[in-house]
């Protein structure tokens, strides 16, 4: 396990102004190395997405890549509340660790 501040949002589909940017089905926790350094990881990510969500959803997310995001002030406020709740819930259930960064040994 890594301290949550050492983790990054690994996007299945890139695109900074696309509708998939903050879609929680399209973003998963990754370490820096997998998210930024190893560029060859996308085939494994694709297979994970197929297994986790099914081919139909994978195709829906790919289609959403062509849609521009509508980032309104209301959207930002809702997103801030939602992701704050997600972090609080993960801390509460032990899925995230506060304090000193920790790495599991096995």
What's the gist of this structure?
This protein is mainly alpha-helical and 106 residues long. It contains four helices and two strands; from the N terminus they run E-E-H-H-H-H.
- Over all CA atoms, what is the radius of gyration? 15 Å
Gap from first CA to last CA: 9 Å
> Percent of residues in helical segments?
40-55%
Order of helices and strands: EEHHHH
Strand line-up in the sheet with most strands: 1-2
Biggest sheet, open or closed, and with what strands and sense? 2 strands, antiparallel
Based on Cα principal axes, name the global outline: globular
Task: Enumerate how many helices there are, as a single number.
Answer: 4
Q: What structural category do the secondary elements indicate?
A: mainly alpha
Mean pLDDT: 81
How many strand segments?
Answer: 2
Strand proportion = 5-15%
Low-confidence stretches: 100-106
Structure description:
The protein has a two-stranded antiparallel ribbon with strand order 1-2. Residues 100-106 have low confidence and may be disordered. It has 4 helices and 2 strands. With 106 residues, it is mostly helical. The protein has helices spanning 32-37, 42-53, 55-64, 73-92; strands at 7-11, 27-31. It is globular and about 35 Å long. α2 (42-53) crosses α3 (55-64).
Summarize the helices and strands and which ones pair or pack:
Elements: E1 7-11, E2 27-31, H1 32-37, H2 42-53, H3 55-64, H4 73-92
Antiparallel strand pairs: 1-2
Please tag this protein with its features.
globular
């Amino acid at each position: 396990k890594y301290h949550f501040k050492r983790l990054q949002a690994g996007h299945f589909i890139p695109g900074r102004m696309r509708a998939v940017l903050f879609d929680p089905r399209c973003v998963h926790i990754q370490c820096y190395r997998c998210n930024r350094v190893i560029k060859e990881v996308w085939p494994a990510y694709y297979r994970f997405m197929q297994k986790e969500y099914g081919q139909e959803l994978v195709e829906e997310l790919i289609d959403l890549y062509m849609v521009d995001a509508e980032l309104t002030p209301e959207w930002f406020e809702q997103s801030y509340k939602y992701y704050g709740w997600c972090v609080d819930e993960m801390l509460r259930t032990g899925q995230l660790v506060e304090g000193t960064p920790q790495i599991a040994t096995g």
